[in-house]
Design goal:
Elements: H1 7-17, H2 23-28, E1 34-41, E2 45-46, H3 50-59, E3 63-67, E4 73-74, E5 79-86, H4 87-121, E6 126-129, H5 138-147, E7 151-152, E8 161-163, H6 165-168, H7 177-187, E9 193-197, H8 200-208, E10 213-217, H9 221-234, E11 239-243, H10 251-256, E12 261-264, E13 275-282
Parallel strand pairs: 6-7, 6-12, 8-9, 9-10, 10-11, 11-12
Antiparallel strand pairs: 1-5, 1-13, 2-4, 3-5
Helix pairs in contact: 1-3, 3-4, 4-5, 8-9
Amino acid sequence: MMIFFTDNDIDRLIEDDVPAGDMTTALLDIAGKRGSISLFARNEMIVCCTEEAVHLYKKVGLEVDFSVASGTKLQPGDKLLEAKGEASAIHLIWRTGTAMIEFASGIADRTRQLVESARKENPSVAVAGTRKHPPFVKKMALKALMAGGGVPHRTGLSDTILIFREHLLFTGGYEKLPEVISGIKEKMKERKIVVEAHTMEEALNAAKSGAHAVQLDKMPPEIFTECAGKCRAINQDICMIAAGSVNNTNVALYAKAGADVLVTSWMYFAPPADIKVEIIHLNHT
């Protein structure tokens, strides 16, 4: 999946930081002077959103000489982006471009940690990011998730069928699941149906009712193993999902417990990556 950032997305980034011009740069009268900006990793990291930074740099007229792709693993001191051009343009996007890469790279790096820990126990397990990312950063969060080796659990309410207990309050509860699932399959034949369960009983009910996947919420790993085994005895192809409080302390336990998918929002609240910025005054063109 490619996350597409529009020209308007990039314009908004600039407008948010520079709603009425750069007062400091204007007062220092440095317009017309030339410089370069280079970004370096201070620590080992998975970089993300360099493509959007390049788009941002070019928007203000900078010439990009070098950039690495999102998903690249960098070591301390590695260069990730370099551009040159008018000094006022460099100062216009310096902080915005750097902050975007730092924020996204933090998420990507944390995602990679989860993926590597989980796949040591289960090489085929998927780490999926929820849609509970901070508001207004969906595109950046999803791109960072995938750069780190994760996948979107749901990009929004429009792309998946996920039945929660709260839905079932209005349809007769788990007891009516067979009729509910049958009705959905009749209306939407090509889609898979996921049912969230909080107990063994609810999970087995979902499996017997024809759910393609059961999402177990906050079920301890040792109980998850037993529950997954019983659900697979009903349907050997059923997908078992672990969700709720999955993080770096227990992701390997859930992978070992037999989860096919690990659903979490833990990666979205990573500290930003640390990037060194070097700006140089170029005396000549």
